[in-house]
Amino acid sequence: MIAFHLDNRSGVPAYLQLVQQVRQAIRLGILRPGDQLPTVKEVVTALTINPNTVLHAYRQLDLEGFTEGRRGVGTFVAADPAPPPTDKLRTLRASLDQWVGRARAAGLDDESIGALFAESVRPAGAARVA
Amino acid sequence: MSGAPAISTAGLGKRYGAKWALHDCTLEIPRGSVTALVGPNGAGKTTLLQLVIGLIQPSAGQVAVLGGAPSTKDVLPRIGFVAQDHPLYRNLTIAETFRLGRKLNERWDEAFARTRIARLGLGERQRVGKLSGGQQAQIALTLALAKRPELLVLDEPVASLDPLARREFLNAVLEAVAESEMTVVLSSHIVAELERVCDHLITLTAGRTQLAGSIAEIVASHRVLLGPRSDAGSVARMHDVIRESHTDRQTTLLVRADGHVYDSCWEQHEADLEEIVLAYLGYNPGASASRSAAVAS
After folding, report:
1. Which of B166, B229, B236, B285 has the fewest CB atoms nearer than 10 Å to its CB?
2. B217 touches chain A (CB under 8 A)
3. pLDDT of residue A36
């Protein structure tokens, strides 16, 4: 079982914070296949949060293949919860390291690099038109 | 019948003498939602809630609750209501208060009421007037919930409570929502903690609604734009501006976005709910000259 926490000032919607915490716990092995997630009511009691937010998060996790909701029983970590493609991840990481090296060489400080990166990963709808 | 929204109003208005306490209000609240009704004191929140529960009759327009007229025999037993300051008979014991609830409500769930009181650590022989403010609020809520309502209406439920009692009260409401798919409408003048508790929002100022819809959509459809100083007229032609503030070099706008593409001179930021709500309620920090030098964050 995992305990959720919410950061009210992060700017990340509450449902997404729950989704991210479950994904993270699965990646780190804190949650294993077959483990049950807290019931909606347990999360509501612990966080004083809207039940619809919890349902939204659990639906999203189901859709992404991380969990399986069983009606009337609960939500469980899937047998094969969408494992990250490790080889691809390594290649991506390496090219990102290279890019960061080039940015530093060009004289950018960490804050500028972070801002550039944040700009790139911004959701498509929110992208600024240059 | 289950397809009908929890609440729908069309051109709804209430007039007291020459003054409209609520004017031309059209909105829809879906079943199973938790809706915050936000506005300054005297904005018409209580009037809207009293129209919804059939306590007062409209001067104009219509209101339908759970598919029917609120004060009818079919609808009234399915609505729970807790008035401001949680009024109770102070001289009755908890047991006597429940007996009253049982006699007055055909759908009274005695087992539910008793379980809740036990969970709160209260004894049925305790006199209501001797309880703390938080405990009295819980008793009033228990009375409304034991009716097993499909729609629960709460008028400023947590305004008078300390932070702990507030948490406990909201927890009890949200747990009931998790168990029963009940619809909740609560009025408040505190915006800060609503985002966590509610999924829909209505703002009301001087008897008129400005925003009414899902919080996710409201947040997604607004943007903060930061750019070089621009004159108000040209800005208003281009954008649906909710709030603007200017320094000698910079202009900050809160705009309704709706998929708009902006000129690259504007730096775009997401707006947070509190910022949006305050703007609609008329708060404008840039309007005051003494603060015009403040740098927007």
Report:
1. B229
2. no
3. 95
Chain B hits for A8, Cβ within 8 Å = 195-196
CB atoms < 10 A from the CB of B219, how many?
17
In whole angstroms, give the CA distance from residue B34 to residue A95: 46
Q: Which residues of B touch A41 (CB under 8 A)?
A: 175, 178-179
- β-pairing, B7-16 vs B19-29, is antiparallel
Residue-wise pLDDT tens digits, B177-213: 999 989 999 998 777 778 889 999 999 999 999 999 9
Check: CB of residue B15 under 8 Å from CB of residue B22: no
Q: Could you count the other beta carbons within 10 Å of the beta carbon of residue A16?
A: 14
**Hey, CA dihedral for A116, A118, A119, A121, is it positive or negative?**
positive
Angle between helix B110-119 and B133-145 (nearest 10): 160
* CB distance B167 to B134 below 8 Å: no
The amino acid present at B108, given as its one-letter code, is: W
Q: Is B33 on the interface with A (CB under 8 A)?
A: yes
**Has this prediction a pTM greater than 0.90?**
no
Contact indicator for B26, B9 with CB cutoff of 8 Å = yes
- pLDDT tens readout for residues B145-158: 999 999 999 999 99
Which of A45, A48, A119, A121 would you mutate first to test chain B, the one with the most B CBs within 10 A?
A48
Question: Looking at beta carbons, which residues of chain A come within 8 Å of B268?
Answer: 126, 128
Under 8 Å between Cβ of B65 and B29: no
Answer yes or no: do A128 and B195 touch at CB < 8 A: no
Chain A residue closest in CA terms to B223: A126
Which residues are within 8 A (CB) of A63 and not within 5 positions of it... i.e. 6 or more apart? none
Name beta bridge partners: B200. B35, B214
